[in-house]
Write a structure and sequence with these properties.
Blueprint (H helix, E strand, L loop, with lengths): L88 H12 L5 E6 L6 H11 L7 E5 L3 H15 L9 H13 L2 E10 L2 H9 L3 E8 L10 E4 L5 H12 L10 H7 L4 H14 L3 H10 L1 H6 L16 H5 L5 H10 L7 E2 L9 H13 L4 E3 L4 E3 L2 H7 L11 H18 L11 H17 L7 H17 L2 H17 L5 H17 L3 H19 L4 H16 L3 H19 L4 H16 L3 H18 L5 H16 L3 H19 L4 H16 L3 H19 L4 H16 L3 H18 L5 H16 L3 H18 L5 H16 L3 H19 L4 H16 L3 H19 L4 H16 L3 H19 L4 H14 L2
Parallel strand pairs: 1-4, 1-5, 2-3, 3-4
Antiparallel strand pairs: 6-8, 7-8
Helix pairs in contact: 3-4, 6-7, 6-8, 7-9, 12-13, 12-15, 15-16, 15-17, 16-17, 17-18, 17-19, 18-19, 19-20, 19-21, 20-21, 21-22, 21-23, 22-23, 23-24, 23-25, 24-25, 25-26, 26-27, 27-28, 27-29, 28-29, 29-30, 30-31, 31-32, 31-33, 32-33, 33-34, 33-35, 34-35, 35-36, 36-37, 37-38, 37-39, 38-39
Length: 932
């Protein structure tokens, strides 16, 4: 700002040719008398003659001591008061406190990024305090010459008669003398570029106030109290935009929030954008589109009558010009432009230069407020609009040459790729480093223009996707991996092996997202491509074969999955031998398929063989050995051998703690599995205690919405149900459902399961009004997402039937159960666990409907089926025998009911213990039968 102060100077008397001639007489001997201009007179022996051709007659004011000069009332040259001023109340209050008290000289320096509103704040505060200070004088102090001129102008404002009488240097000195001997004045030194320029002036202040504005954040120690000015609050930025844009007429304000966010709430940028929109009739949404497609033009634009030198594109030229002797500073700024605006690790810049050189360049950028260095974290911050301009090419701008910006993007990509943790498999020790870098990965990916992708960027995408999968951020992971695949496909000369790996990661992401409709075709194509390009016996081809099997297993097609796993195991044995680690893993995979298919007794010998091989080849503490031991425990558990499962789970947990640590995800999974086994063994309180500990640990390690955390929460809710605490169970199921909806989506299979679990809890609590609509909605969504024949959909049909039964609507319940039984048998076979459960449900429905004779044959078939598949001592078999006895009891045939109860009670006591819930239930039913 360059305000001017003008006051008409007083006239200075001068000679005239028409003046009256007066006779003169010499005063004495050797004296000289002159009656006019004689030019020069010399008297005395050896006298020296001096001729004065031009004399300046100083006005009397020049001889008045500065301390005696009184300032006229209301002397000011403040720039025009800002027409619209928003926010800054905290800063205004601080200036009031700092500059308002009585005492010696007070100096405050407001510093910040160009365009952040330093001068506007100073002008607003100065205008608001006009009554408290005199004079209130504004000096544009960007150069020493401008500072001197401003001080000289102050002197002439105080004593107008000196304007033509003294030189600028003398006026400057006169001004400083006055300031040093007076109080109550306010001097605003605007846009100081170097603190050293103003320190001599500050040193001579008397009892007045200096308010300085500067882009320089450093150099004020010992001379001024700094006040860092930040951007406007978002609401204030919106108010500023709206006040300018809709000043004279109603406007469409849709998009104003986004404009202010995009501009980083920088006052100058918001003001110019609003003025541009108002002048051109552009809506805020239209402005955003212009900014997306024509950033260079928008940054260089200014409304009619605006200052071209203060456009967004040019506002930081001055700061960068000051550092032109250090090319590294500009290079750093262009590199930082590709990352997120905040918390940029300084280590990303380490490859650029030796530490002292790098620190000097960073220090200069910080001194000019172009970046912020956070001393507590060693992180860097850059205003997002500075970043946007710094990465927008402009051939005419020496700081933004296209080739320099492209080079900066490449360097930023390489630095980030090298900084990523090498462990993407999920060691939590690497997670903090990942969390620090993720915002910068996202920013780099979003800002890299189409066609500028590189191998390093693809590597970043792939590794980030794998980490996010492990972290449970499935949708974000899928998006990253999908883009990596697209980049590979667009590169004609790309690495085909890496391309296959990226597509395999994408298939895994689809599976974790529950999207088997996309996963299966992709896995099939991957298998075909791998076989064609690498060969049918290549390890990657066999891995692709297993991944396809897993996709079929998730889709509920266990028969197809088993067939593929059997083929894969045979291929591994043929190619690598019985004891090769990959063969051991393949054997475990086939066992897992058998268990998922409801055939745990076929899985157990395979897993026992796999565990023996793993112990011999890999060792007790190898991660694959731990995984196989856990799978064997799960198979025993599924087969009803819970007392064999528990020692295996306990051994696995102890080894996991020793090898991986208490907080490793695999350790928490082992803890979760052990709690599940305790519940199955009837030790519900011990199960709850372990689940609660696991949940606390999982939240701390992985977060509230990680899939592992949500799984543990589900299991804990189920344990509360078993303990009869349905109120806590319902609350826990609700939180789990909310977590799945946030982390995955409402349609994810896990979210559908969570909703079903909540409905079951309502049903167990005797609340059909909640259970029925929830079951109906979940079934409809499952049909839409998974299909009519998915095993999960059929199970949900069972659950809805149970809810109808609770509501007393057996006419609707029984047909649903009958259909579910038919579907399970058709899809999974007569003796699949799902089919056996469905048959039990139909039989129980018949019994409840008063038709126990229709129920008895079905119960008999269930008992036989459970006995063949899981054995006569399995809890499911014992439950089926209890149900058969109950049907006989309802039919009035106590002679058959009581012996079945007696035998079932004996077996349950022997297998599960006399205090197990199932044992207690059978005992109560037996006693009731005996009472008749």
């Amino acid at each position: 700002m360059s305000p001017e102060y003008r006051r008409r100077p007083e006239a200075v008397p001068s000679s005239s040719k028409g003046a009256l001639e007066i006779p003169v007489t010499a005063s004495g001997q050797r004296a000289v008398a002159a009656g006019g201009d004689i030019g020069q007179a010399v008297t005395g022996d050896g006298a020296l003659g001096i001729q004065v051709e031009h004399a300046v007659l100083l006005p009397k004011e020049a001889f008045t001591p500065s301390a005696s000069v009184v300032c006229p009332p209301g002397v000011t040259n403040l720039p025009e008061i800002p027409g619209l001023f928003v926010g800054r109340q905290w800063e205004l209050n601080l200036l009031d406190r700092a500059l308002g008290h009585v005492g010696g000289v007070v100096v405050h320096a407001v510093h910040g990024l160009g365009g952040i509103g330093k001068s506007t704040l100073a002008a607003h505060w100065a205008w608001s305090r006009m009554a408290d200070h005199n004079p209130v004088w504004w000096i544009s102090a960007d150069t020493p010459a401008a500072l001197d001129a401003g001080l000289a102008a102050l002197a002439t404002a105080l004593q107008p008669a000196l304007a033509q009488a003294l030189s600028q240097e003398a006026l400057r000195e006169r001004s400083l003398q006055w300031l040093s001997t007076h109080e109550g004045w306010l001097l605003v030194l605007d846009n100081v570029t170097d603190a050293a320029h103003v320190k001599p002036v500050l040193a001579r202040g008397g009892g007045g106030r200096f308010l300085i504005t500067s882009r320089r954040a450093t150099g004020w120690h010992g001379s001024a109290t700094p006040l860092a000015l930040n951007v406007l609050d978002h609401a204030e930025a919106v108010e500023l935009f709206t006040g300018i844009f809709a000043y004279d007429q109603p406007r469409d304000l849709d998009g104003v929030d986004e404009v202010c966010t995009t501009l980083g709430c920088l006052p100058l940028a918001v003001e110019q954008a609003a003025a541009f929109c108002a002048e051109t009739g552009t809506s805020p949404r239209g402005y955003l589109e212009l900014l997306e497609h024509y950033p260079a033009d928008v940054y260089a634009s200014v409304a009619e009558g605006g200052d071209v030198a203060r456009t967004i594109a040019r506002i930081w030229h001055l700061s960068l010009d000051c550092m032109v002797d250090d090319p590294l500073a500009g290079q750093i700024l262009r590199i930082l432009a590709w990352y997120a605006a905040d918390a940029i690790p300084r280590s990303l810049l380490t490859p650029l230069a030796p530490a002292p050189t790098l620190l000097r360049a960073l220090g200069r950028l910080a001194a000019h407020s172009m970046i912020t260095i956070h001393s507590d974290t060693a992180d860097l911050s850059v205003h997002r609009l500075v970043q946007a301009v710094a990465r927008t090419p402009e051939p005419a701008d020496p700081h933004r040459r296209p080739e320099d910006i492209a080079d900066a993007r490449i360097r930023a990509t390489i630095a980030l790729a090298e900084a990523l943790p090498t462990d993407t498999a999920g060691d939590p020790a690497s997670w903090p480093a990942w969390e620090i870098l993720l915002p910068h990965v996202d920013a780099l990916i979003d800002r890299t223009p189409p066609g500028a992708e590189s191998t390093d960027l693809v590597r970043i995408l792939s590794q980030t996707g794998q980490f996010l999968l492990r972290k449970g951020s499935i949708s974000r992971a899928t998006a990253r991996i999908q883009r990596a695949v697209e980049m590979f496909e667009q590169a004609a000369d790309g690495d085909r092996h890496s391309a296959l790996a990226a597509r395999n990661n994408l298939a895994q992401a689809y599976q974790l997202a529950g999207n088997t409709r996309k996963a299966i075709p992709l896995c099939e194509q991957l298998l075909a491509d791998s076989a064609r390009e690498l060969g049918e016996d290549h390890p990657d081809t066999l891995t692709a074969q297993h991944n396809l099997a897993h996709a079929y297993l998730l889709a509920g097609n266990s028969r197809r999955a088993i067939s593929i796993c059997e083929r894969t195991l045979a291929d591994r044995i043929r190619i690598s031998g019985e004891d090769h680690p990959e063969t051991i893993i393949a054997r475990g995979n086939l066992a897992a398929a058998y268990r998922e298919a409801g055939e745990p007794r076929r899985a157990i010998p395979l897993l026992e063989c796999a565990l023996t091989g793993a112990l011999r080849v890999l060792g007790k503490e190898h991660l694959n050995t731990l995984s196989i031991r856990n799978a064997l425990a799960a198979a025993h558990h599924a087969a009803g051998n819970v007392w064999q499962a528990i020692p295996l789970y306990e051994e696995g947990l102890e080894t996991s703690v020793r090898v991986l640590g208490d907080d490793h995800p695999d350790t928490l999974t082992a803890q979760n599995n052990l709690a599940y086994a305790y519940a199955a063994a009837g030790d519900v309180q011990r199960s709850i205690s372990l689940y609660e500990q696991t949940l606390t640990d999982s939240i701390r390690v992985s977060g509230e919405d990680h899939p592992s955390t949500l799984t543990t929460r589900t299991n804990l809710a189920t344990a509360y149900q078993l303990a009869g605490d349905l109120e806590r169970a319902i609350r826990m199921h609700r939180r789990t459902l909310e977590g799945y909806a946030r982390a995955l989506s409402e349609d994810h299979p896990a979210a559908l399961n969570a909703r079903s679990n909540l409905a079951v809890a309502y049903r167990l609590a005797g609340d059909p009004e909640q259970a029925v609509p929830l079951c109906e909605r979940t079934l409809a969504d499952s049909i839409r997402v998974l299909g009519e024949d998915h095993p999960r959909t059929i199970t949900l049909r069972n659950n809805l039937a149970a809810a109808y039964r609770l509501a007393g609507d057996m006419k609707r319940a029984i047909p649903l159960w009958e259909r579910a039984l038919a579907d399970h048998v058709r899809i999974s076979g007569e003796e699949h666990p799902d089919s056996l459960i469905a048959r039990d449900n139909v039989a129980s429905a018949y019994a409840s409907a008063g038709e126990p004779k229709r129920a008895i044959p079905l119960h008999r078939r269930s008992v036989a089926g459970w006995g063949r598949t899981l054995g006569k001592d399995h809890p499911n078999t014992l439950t089926a025998r209890n149900n058969l006895a109950y049907a006989y009891r309802l039919a009035g045939d106590l002679k058959r009911a009581i012996p079945i109860y007696v035998q079932a009670l004996g077996d349950s006591t022997r297998v599960l213990g006399k205090s197990h819930p199932l044992t207690r239930m059978i005992r109560e039913n037996l006693n009731a039968a005996r009472r008749g």
